[in-house]
């Protein structure tokens, strides 16, 4: 068990998130309930096979994706994590990018995740980093703030 948190369910999931590789994606059924739901700004899927596709796509679309969990809050069968997602674009800038976000997790009686909802600002954290689109997004942000 990870020393990061005393709750074994949470420690297990945090360890998985921070060390996941493409080869690990096929083992997500060990962490997620069969009918688990995953939702983020781009996906809303249910079931382990669909969740595996989301994670597999992350490794296909990006270079060196990895999570660093920053904060952990647990209350009963729920958990909230804040994290940094680090990666490199395959087609654009080769520099490392960082997306700051959070995940709400709910566990079932067996300690598997039944709900995984990610919260992060796609406009600020992703679109502003893309060539062309980023300049337009920053322009819109300045206009909205003036």
- Averaging pLDDT over every residue, what do you get? 87
Strand and helix order: HEEHEEEEHH
Q: In angstroms, what separates the terminal alpha carbons?
A: 50 Å
- Proportion of residues in β-strands: 35-45%
The level 1 CATH classification is Alpha Beta
Unreliably modeled segments: none
Notes on the protein architecture:
The structure is a single chain. By secondary structure, this protein is an alpha+beta fold. Helix content is 29%, strand content 38%. The longest helix is centred in the middle third of the chain and has 14 residues. It has one domain: Nuclear Transport Factor 2, Chain: A. A hairpin with a 5-residue loop joins strand 5 and strand 6. It is built from four helices and six strands. Strands 2-1-6-5-4-3 form a six-stranded mixed beta sheet, covered by helices on one side. 15% of the residues are buried.
């Amino acid at each position: 068990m990870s020393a990061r948190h005393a709750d074994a369910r949470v420690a297990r999931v945090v360890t998985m998130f921070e060390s996941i590789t493409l080869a690990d994606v096929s083992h997500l059924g060990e962490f997620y309930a069969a009918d688990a739901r995953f939702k983020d700004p781009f996906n809303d899927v249910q079931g382990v096979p669909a969740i595996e596709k989301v994670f597999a796509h992350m490794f296909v679309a990006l270079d060196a994706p990895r999570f660093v969990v920053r904060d952990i809050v647990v209350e009963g069968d729920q958990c909230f994590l804040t994290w940094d997602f680090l990666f490199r674009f395959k087609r654009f800038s080769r520099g490392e990018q960082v997306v700051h976000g959070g995940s709400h997790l709910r566990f079932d009686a067996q300690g598997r995740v039944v709900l995984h909802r990610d919260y992060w600002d796609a406009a600020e954290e992703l679109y502003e980093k893309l060539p062309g689109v980023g300049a337009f997004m920053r322009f819109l942000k300045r206009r909205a703030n003036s």
